[in-house]
């Protein structure tokens, strides 16, 4: 039985067209940090919604107390490291950060972790 060349070519094109290439920039947007990230408008709401909540990083619970701006700023590098590695919030909490939230924290730290 002889396979016709046109069938081989058609099969090859079918296989190639089924392949997809996804990269992080296509999926989540570029991580360029060109626009200024505001602590008050961008970072603090993330911390308040996901970290400084009852039973987590508030007074009388798990340290550090992330209700205090000075604590957040002094621990900015650690907050970035823990959110990027996805060890905070812990998976056992059922709370997750989006890629955009993680990127916002990262950009804020890269820009100096300012109280702006």
Descriptive account of the structure:
The relative contact order is 0.15. With 116 residues, the chain is mainly alpha-helical. It is elongated. The model has no long low-confidence stretch (mean pLDDT 85). It has one domain (26-110). Helices cover 50% and strands 0% of the residues. It has helices at residues 5-18, 24-28, 39-50, 69-74, 76-84, 99-110. The termini are far apart. It contains six helices and no strands.
Low-pLDDT ranges = none
Counting helices, strands and paired strands, the structural category is: mainly alpha
Shape assignment: elongated
* N-to-C span: 74 Å
Number of domain units: 1
Order of helices and strands: HHHHHH
- Tally the helices: 6
| Percent of sequence in beta strands | under 5%
Radius of gyration of CA atoms, rounded to a whole number: 22 Å
Mean of the pLDDT scores?
85
Largest sheet: none
Q: How many strands appear in the DSSP assignment?
A: 0
Helix content: 40-55%
Keywords:
6 helices; 0% strand; mainly alpha; 116 residues; single chain
Describe the secondary-structure layout.
Blueprint: H1 5-18, H2 24-28, H3 39-50, H4 69-74, H5 76-84, H6 99-110
Helix pairs in contact: 3-6, 5-6
